[in-house]
Design a protein that fits this description.
The protein contains six helices and seven strands; from the N terminus they run ααααββββαβββα. The chain has 235 residues and is of the alpha+beta class.
């Protein structure tokens, strides 16, 4: 029963995480005199940032307008005192990522093309900070990889405590200076491509939305690890 409850909570947290930075989560524009949940969301955000001292009540009054004037002035945008489209996007959307920031690509939204087959990259296990080098060897529903050398295989095995396992782990993947949040398992399986690396088979790397080969479904444990990895940076 405890495991079922934990999985339910985990599923809910993942769904909330995915929704936070989407267009659907952004409230509508509003102005003085408006009422509703979209006003309440804007007020809550302004309170969290320290611009609004009054309670969020869903009613756009003078306090909300003044807090918006202050926010707009600090951000250097046109001071309207309204929650216009520009202000709403600045309040609720994260800034455009810069090179070196941790990115969270969707596998079926272009993520599958970010790292070509044969490309070399580094993996960092965020729980141990251990780093090893890999090569993408294949992968359609997710990325299939192998350690580059026997030394890299030994580093990966050490991350798993000296015993290969299907356990998922949160990782950062660094390719040409771009850092991606992902998840890996530690169980060599299937065919192998790279000779002399002491791994009999390959292992799997899952970006957001990647699927298992057999089930063709998103693995909730891989997804949870990718979410966790997204909280970290490479350095």
């Amino acid at each position: 029963m405890k495991r079922l409850i934990s999985l339910s909570l985990l599923t809910l947290l993942i769904a909330l995480y995915q929704a936070v930075w989407t267009e659907a989560a952004i409230p509508l524009s509003s102005a003085q005199g408006d009422k509703g949940i979209h006003v309440w969301q804007t007020q809550q955000r302004l309170r969290a940032l320290g611009f609004l001292k009054a309670e969020a009540d869903g009613v756009f009054g003078s306090d909300t307008a003044l807090s918006l004037y202050a926010y707009q002035a600090e951000k250097g945008i046109r001071p309207t005192g309204e929650a216009d489209e520009e202000t709403i996007r600045l309040l609720f959307l994260p800034p455009e990522p810069k090179k070196g920031d941790t990115l969270r690509p969707s596998w079926y939204g272009g993520g599958s093309e970010l790292i070509p087959i044969g490309a070399r990259f580094q993996i960092k296990d965020v729980r141990t900070n251990a780093v090893f080098s890999c090569v993408r060897v294949m992968g359609v529903s997710h990325l299939d990889a192998e350690p580059l050398t026997a030394e890299d295989t030994a580093l990966m095995l050490d991350i798993y405590g000296g015993e290969w396992s299907w356990d998922r782990r949160p990782i950062l993947l660094n390719y040409q200076g771009n850092v991606y949040a992902a998840s890996m398992n530690g169980k060599p399986h299937g065919w192998e491509v790279i000779p002399g690396n002491d791994m009999s088979g390959h292992f799997c790397v899952h970006f957001f939305g990647a699927r298992g080969d057999g089930s063709q479904r998103v693995d909730p444990e891989h997804l949870a690890c990718a979410v966790e990895a997204g909280l970290y940076g490479w350095e």
